[in-house]
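thread: overnight batch results

M.L. [08:02]
morning all. the overnight job finished for the chain we discussed friday. pasting input first so we're all looking at the same thing
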Amino acid sequence: MFPALPSLSALPRRLAGALRRPLPAVVCAAAALALLAWWLLPLGGAPSPRGTVTLATGVPTGVYARYGELLRQDLAQDMPQLDVRLTRSEGSIDNLRQLTSGRAGFTIATADAVAAYRERGERGARSLRACARLYDDYMQLVVPEGSRVRSAKDLRGLRVGVGADGSGVQLITRRLMAAAGLDFGRDIRPVRVGIDTMPSLLRRGELDAFFWSGGLPTAAVQHLEDRFPVRLVQLGDLAAALHRQGGQSRYYREAVMPADAYPRAQRGQGVKTIAVANLLVTTDREDAALTEAVTRTVIRSRDAIGEEVHAAQKVDLRTAVFTDPLALHRGARRYYVSEKP
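M.L. [08:03]
and the structure it wrote out:
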């Protein structure tokens, strides 16, 4: 359905007066068509982006993948001439590699993973730019209900799912192990698999515990607590030691998982843990008009996406610009400037 044409009273005074005066039929028709074309232009007067763009997300059972799918649907509504494609990944570091290699145009990554990628000087690190700060990932340590583990310090000698290589969860797990006084390679038996595999291994008794870093709630953990008695272990006792590591550890904050994130596993209790912000990331090569349009959709789709991905309810125009360690892409910055009152 086309939007209604403006009334004469809504038009500039000179234009309204000109349209009231008798004009030849041809001129009237031309003026009407020009007015209609102007009225149907997208906000900002720019044509809708077109072509193909790829968004790198995550493993199928993680929040990145679900958020990416919902965002793809909203982008398709806002930019019908843009073909948005999704690719899966092992997590933040893998996402950044897809982005800088040109296999993706946009991706999601945690702030600490972005900082690590830049500090290691990995390929294309200097080209990274941010579109928005999204929602926080919460570090989750999951064990069978009857486990003796009450802290990460109790994981010595156990088989621990630590996330796949190239994942943000493994990056944080390594730092948490150091904070707990454990050596990642010697004091635990690390199993390098992702959230698509760890829950089934725990159910079969092939893992004693696993770490996961994701938005709340994560579907894979929800499904696990529905089928197998598990418990979430607090990580709050490691916060001080984690922050003493300095460097990229400044991107972590103390947090509490709400009691209703995983009702069965938490038994109505909040769980102290560590959180880190997610960023929507692109490169300085990306088109400014496309980046502005994508950023606009990200912010405006918060409520719709948040109905299914509760973590997305945290996306907010006031905090979206805080994208440390990355500068905003010029297209994203243009959007935020346009939204100022």
